[in-house]
Amino acid sequence: MTDFHGIFPYLVSPIDAASGHVRETALRGLVEHVLQCGVHGLSPLGSTGEFAYLSLEQRAQIVRVVVDAAAAGRVPVVAGVAAFSTAQALRQAEAYARLGVDGLILILQQMFPIPPRGVESYFRAVAQAFPRLSMTVYTNPGLLGGEIAMDVLDELSHDPNIEYVKDASSDTGRILTLLNRMGGRIRVFSASAHVPLLVLRLGGVGWMAGPACVMPRECVRLYDLARAQRWDEALAEQRRQWAINEVFAKYALAACVKTALRLQGFEVGEPLAPQQPLGPKAVEEIRRALAQLG
Which of helix, strand or coil describes residue 6? Predict the structure, then answer.
């Protein structure tokens, strides 16, 4: 059993719009920065990584760069696998396994309704095909395939390498049910920016988040305070971080994170088309939020 815990930034995907090539220097610089800030792992190809707008070749290139850049800090790299079909998911997983990832975050995209047995078979097929990789099941009712039923998660938790759930439901009752029902077999990462401290207090092991690219040091501080059970200080830290999360919730997340990173000096480019760059008003709001964060 692995011991993934703490802050895992959902890394952006810096792509040159003209050539379609990965901006490798920018990505390596961002990885080095967040590692120096003390993050506990890295997650390329999450929702903040705009995976839906990337070719399979671009996805593999991003994973290759992150795995290589992370070697110096030797934190786990957990790459996102997102597909409509099981065959597509297995193809992605095989590519990332060859590149040396430590684990996968599995996302099921859906066009037509899929019954619980089909959902279960998707995740189980990838997990069983790569038994040496740790698997995180990603459930997000507001994105892609929706919420994964508790009974399905319970069944999956018996697979030895399905070890984590990233829950973006924002339903704290659901998270508590998950921990009570299968906490001995599966561990929970928070996703939503307004509940990581509560998830940690309930027994969660960390926070996987796009905003951690922008404020990695602050996110690590929040986690450390929670681990030390300094709850009043941790709550003050989460409230301090909320100004920037509030802006990110107002606009498209990937565009916000990329804009904030550019304001911090990282040349990560614009959001990938057909997404649009943020307007001057949004950019100024992000600038003010960063200044407030300090």
Answer: strand
